[in-house]
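User: hey, got a sec? need Apoptosis-inducing factor 3 folded
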Amino acid sequence: VEVKIEVVIPEKERSKEEMSPNGKASPLIYKVNGTARHYHLEEHPIASNPYHNPKDVVEASVCHVKDLENGQMREVDLGCGKALLIKESGEFHAVGHKCPHYGAPLVKGVLSKGRVRCPWHGACFNIGTGDIEDFPGLDSLPRFQVKIEKEKVYIRASKQALQTQRRTKMMAKCISLSNYNLSSTNVLIIGAGAAGLVCAETLRQEGFSDRIVMCTMDRHLPYDRPKLSKSMDSHPEQIALRPKEFFCTYDIEVLTEMQVAAVDIKSKIAVFKDGFKMEYNKLLIATGNTPKALSCKGKEMENVFNIRTPEDANRVVKLATSKNVVIVGASFLGMEAAAYLAERAHSVSLVELEEVPFKKFFGERVGRAVMKMFENNRVKFYMQTEVSELREQEGKLKEVVLKSGKVLRADVCVVGVGAVPATGFLKQSGINIDSKGFIVVNKMMQTNIPGVFAAGDAVTFPLALRNNKKVNVPHWQMAHMHGRIAALNMLAHGMEISTVPYLWTAMFGKSIRYAGHGEGFDDVVIQGDLDELKFVAFYTKSDEVVAVASMNYDPIVSKVAEVLAAGRTIRKRDVDAVVFLSFRTGDMSWLTGKGS
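Assistant: Yep! Here you go:
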């Protein structure tokens, strides 16, 4: 049975550009807030009962109404799983209790103005709907029914949702593939990292039902790239962001091992390295960056790695076990790899041009504390020097020669000396590229070319936190948000980016959390004990706090991120006068403007 629905749209709305090629609209289109939206009929089934299987439902009394004050959260047990009960503005809400990203307990996070922020990596969820509002991660929280009877609070929940603790947003499917040939798509996404995947998912979540094609030089479907240096023996299927079935279900096509060589913006055609051409209507460029290589003799020798793929990371672990490892560059990748390999290798040596690791990012005092932690775990540093030569024996790496004259035994060398934006193929395209190779975009992730968007590590964009200064933030959380903003503006939502950068690094079982953008900081105010690796560092520029980092002080970074996201300013005098007392008492109400 074929059901056709005709939606009559006012003439002035109908004249606006539809997200469909060659002027052909999808079978079902309607307008919401002036935006074209395309829905599959299966997307919104009518159901009076949200729990279709009564056997899958549990209902339990979890507390008295007076047990929670406004602004409080409590983890409650329903017998077959837990939920997070929240009271805000006199109303109770119940959602999943674990962050879908890495499973952080949200009860230890930060509740602020209708959303809860993860204490580990900063993802934010709406307490009323469970929807994810800031990243990292792809899934939302399950939302559970709450009712009040005789002063008692009851939660009614699906057993399955209690067990999975995650919810994938409802998505449309492609219903117009027959309108396309293989060399034509409505949306083309170059790059299959976080930005590209979130863009594709957001389009489907918003009801877009035309063709979406992602292409990547990688041989794998999108995966959790930060784990390449944090968990180096992870296999591709273990770190996949979505299973293969997901892409099939929602008609998101992924072309692997496909490299775009040029973009013709006038004809709206992407030309691939093998000569294949694809026509597009909207384009997202999310190509990320390319690791820098060493410039010394022997740089192309066997057993010298830039960790770019799961295979690279796996190979390094295998070759490094009980062997001598030299890591060049105290970057995030270099330091994380050194920490991971320290327990497996016979020796780990780290070569760095600067005096202290992370000096420009975390400051000298924090950098020295981190360096001491590494030295206590058998990592040997060779600072303020560079590699002059890589020597081989029987075709394999044997020694790393430093400009200082020191010769290091080496069976494996990992290079982590930074990266450059992967935008060389755009030089003749007409797309605005700055002097460093970054794609310049506005707050809506739009380039200077209509219909062409860019996101992720390869762009500079106006950061609201720093008075709209154009910055590059090459971190996982920001790539997610870029992809979402780009997708919404492909659909003409007029959404501007305003998120607070949030990142983390993990070494020897400890994590440093960081929020804000500290580039150009002129002072660091530290509270806590650096020697004990329990501290918080506030990075200031003039009188204003522009970033914060912490170790073993959760959820202070998430708390500050919420303050900055609300547009509030933290002054240096606030840190000096109040922070230490706040840590002693656990009271951080001064940060939200409450209390004295």
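Quick note: Residues 1-50, 592-596 have pLDDT under 50 and may be disordered. Let me know if you need anything else on Apoptosis-inducing factor 3.
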